[in-house]
Q: What sequence folds into this?
């Protein structure tokens, strides 16, 4: 039995078909697994190994390099507080302290109800909007303890806090694992086609051949 | 909750960007709330640069870009047109990989460009593919940027449906697929050979050089052009308006405009589109058109001119122009256009530790001077901060730095201390420049603020840790 649901198996096959070598689908497939289960499980790694022509150990070895992949369950909402330089200068440490004390767990831990996991993270590319935090990778700019409390209250009430973020993002807040609420679709008839390195020795159609260019 | 007061010129739907007076080559569309849609893009000159390109021979398009002297915006500032010429002749296929991994502390501009004007980037990618004969394009976006991924996915879907991407683009014989690829959280993947490793489905560790450019050997061993998001975002404008018009902006050595993110202790932090090579740091920090000074009641202590990896600058560097070569001769770099301003309240030991901690955490571990050295430096700085520093620690920090980056380390000119400026970049014992980057804050702060370190070492501050936990939110 495979790990992916039948629907996700189709998505996985589509993703893999976009790359000249299927191993390139490794990271996208790990994201897909995380989207399905919230974290990357053993059976997921087994199926990704099959799909990418690798072994489960290679999948773990590769995936564990990247911070976003979790190999154990995390909360429904992953709260990432940036404490790097620009945020540090504008009070990120106090903000983190507030996040920890109000949720009652330290960075690196999950609340008992399984709702929130806190992480102290590196720069998330919002430095002019410091200090900032993200929840499931959705941005909250110019953050204050008050803003954080409001976001937590929204999430506990089952409402989306995105409009509060000052990041011009809105709509529903996905659960951890669902990174983007849509994904690229490449219609088969509009495809230019995958270009495997071993099958191509000539310049593409629009490039003048070298002989023509020389002459 | 009281709404935070947003600075004047701030556009809520392009958060961070400040609309000021000055040319808007790549930020013009931000004035529109729907700047990210195909409809708005087409209504504001979108895909005209691509159409112009398709009406010419690829070599002519390449020549136009070379003529424009479009400098890379990812960090190294290498001219794009020249880099494109490094693809070996007769070796096919060639690929394009877009570097959208933006993670250098202090840097925020590529995310804005991807979220708010995705078609501008796609158009630039297509022009690059057409000019150099790149058969497939991979758009590698930092994993944490969820909204950017959504916006790019929608934009690509629109562009495919309208015939701007995919087979026989705009009815021509030019065909290329653009594949949106998500990263998964690792700063080092921004280094171009690590980016390629990651795209091949491996741990994102840099490759040994030479070859110095993936244009020679890149993705799947094939010639590969890697360009930064902002670099590519300029191509539509350049093709639509011509290299001469582009060179009408900025300086001779650094034409066009460039995005700078100014963060930290200024009155009006934000992302500014600035005349490249002309505007000075002083104008940027104090000018009415830009940041409008250091925050109330405070004064400048120091600033980082080009992201966490850059040696720090001080008061005496304020009159330098934002020009790569000049900044390099003064001992630092413009890097990724990330400027962090610190006022006199800044604890430089703490700021230094935070940056070194970043490099220690993000070291990929492939070479020992970086893997071990950055970790040792972090531990030493931590113990100094904790009040357990030893008098020999400062020399030890510099000595470890010397093992990562031997010889005189480039630092901002310390003429007052009898030390000359040494041009960037530093020498390195490592595979990539990440290790030497950790040396930048250490050398900068110890040279200039030695007394702050010494005070920490000789006098023990009571450690102030908040111990009260005010109850668990329920
Ligand atoms: C440690 C390290 C991190 C880097 N991170 C990035 C990055 O996040 N984005 C980027 O465009 N370039 C980054 N670079 C620079 C790239 O290696 C490469 O020079 C650049 O993407 C080339 O594009 P350009 O010529 O258009 O600037 C990084 C380099 C190093 C050494
Ligand atoms: S310098 Fe550091 S990050 Fe770069 S290859 Fe070596 S260990 Fe990896
Ligand atoms: S330092 Fe916090 S977002 Fe860049």
A:
């Amino acid at each position: 039995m495979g790990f992916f649901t039948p629907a996700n198996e189709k998505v996985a096959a589509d993703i893999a078909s976009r790359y000249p070598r299927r191993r390139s689908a490794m990271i996208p497939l790990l994201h897909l697994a995380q989207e399905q289960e919230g974290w990357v499980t053993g059976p997921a790694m087994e199926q990704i190994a099959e799909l990418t022509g690798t072994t489960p150990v290679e999948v773990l070895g590769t995936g564990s390099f990247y911070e976003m992949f979790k190999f154990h369950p995390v909360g429904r909402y992953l709260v990432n507080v940036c404490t790097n330089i620009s945020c540090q200068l504008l009070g990120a440490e106090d903000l983190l302290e507030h996040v920890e004390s109000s949720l009652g767990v330290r960075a690196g831990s999950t609340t008992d109800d399984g709702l929130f996991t806190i992480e102290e993270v590196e720069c998330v590319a919002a430095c002019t909007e410091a200090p900032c935090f993200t929840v499931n990778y959705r941005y909250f700019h110019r953050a204050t303890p008050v803003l954080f409390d409001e976001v937590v209250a929204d999430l506990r009430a089952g409402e989306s806090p995105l409009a509060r973020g000052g990041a011009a993002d809105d709509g529903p807040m996905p659960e951890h694992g669902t990174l983007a609420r849509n994904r690229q679709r490449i219609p088969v008839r509009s495809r230019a086609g995958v270009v495997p390195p071993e099958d191509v020795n000539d310049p593409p159609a629009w490039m003048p051949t070298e002989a023509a260019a020389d002459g | 909750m009281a709404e935070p007061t947003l600075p004047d010129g701030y556009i809520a739907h392009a958060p961070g960007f400040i609309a000021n007076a000055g040319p808007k080559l790549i930020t013009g569309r931000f004035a529109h709330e729907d700047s990210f849609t195909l409809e708005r893009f087409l209504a504001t000159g979108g895909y005209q640069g691509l159409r112009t390109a398709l009406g010419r021979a690829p070599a002519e398009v390449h020549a136009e870009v070379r003529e424009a002297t479009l400098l890379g915006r990812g960090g190294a500032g290498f001219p794009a047109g020249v880099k494109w010429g490094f693809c070996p002749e007769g070796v096919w296929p060639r690929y394009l990989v877009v570097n959208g991994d933006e993670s250098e502390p202090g840097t925020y501009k590529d995310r804005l460009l991807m979220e708010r004007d995705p078609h501008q980037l796609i158009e630039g990618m297509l022009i690059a593919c057409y000019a150099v004969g790149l058969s497939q394009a991979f758009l590698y976006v930092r994993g944490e940027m969820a909204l950017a991924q959504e916006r790019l996915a929608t934009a690509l879907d629109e562009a495919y449906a309208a015939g701007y991407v995919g087979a026989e683009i705009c009815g021509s014989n030019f065909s290329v697929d653009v594949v949106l690829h998500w990263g998964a959280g690792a700063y080092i993947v921004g280094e171009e050979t690590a980016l390629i490793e990651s795209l091949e489905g491996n741990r994102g560790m840099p490759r040994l050089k030479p070859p110095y450019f993936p244009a020679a050997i890149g993705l799947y061993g094939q010639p590969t052009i890697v360009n930064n998001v902002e670099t590519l975002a300029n191509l539509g404008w350049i093709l639509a308006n011509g290299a001469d018009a582009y060179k009408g902006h900025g300086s001779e050595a650094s034409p066009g405009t460039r995005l700078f993110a100014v963060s930290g202790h200024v009155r009006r932090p934000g992302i500014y589109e600035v005349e490249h090579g002309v505007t000075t740091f002083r104008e940027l920090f104090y000018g009415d058109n830009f940041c409008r000074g250091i925050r109330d009641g405070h004064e400048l202590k120091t600033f980082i001119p080009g992201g966490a990896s850059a040696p720090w600058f001080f008061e005496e560097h304020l009159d330098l122009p934002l020009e790569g070569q000049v900044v390099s001769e003064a001992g630092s770099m413009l890097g990724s256009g990330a400027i962090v301003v610190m006022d006199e309240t800044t604890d430089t030991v703490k700021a230094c530790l935070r940056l070194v901690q970043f490099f220690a955490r993000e070291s990929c571990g492939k070479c020992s001077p970086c893997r071990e050295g950055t970790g040792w430096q972090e531990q030493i700085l931590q113990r100094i901060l904790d009040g357990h520093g030893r008098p020999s620690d400062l020399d030890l920090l510099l000595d470890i730095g010397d093992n990562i980056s031997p010889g005189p380390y480039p630092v901002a000119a310390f003429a007052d201390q009898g030390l000359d400026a040494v041009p960037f970049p530093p020498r390195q014992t490592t595979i990539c420049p990440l290790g030497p980057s950790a040396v930048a804050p250490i050398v900068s702060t110890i040279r200039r603020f030695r007394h702050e370190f010494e005070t920490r070492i000789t006098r023990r501050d009571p450690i102030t840790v908040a111990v009260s936990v005010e109850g668990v939110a329920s």
Remarks:
- The first helix of chain B runs from residue 38 to 43.
- The beta strands of chain B are 94-100, 134-141, 177-182, 224-228, 257-264, 270-275, 300-304, 338-343.
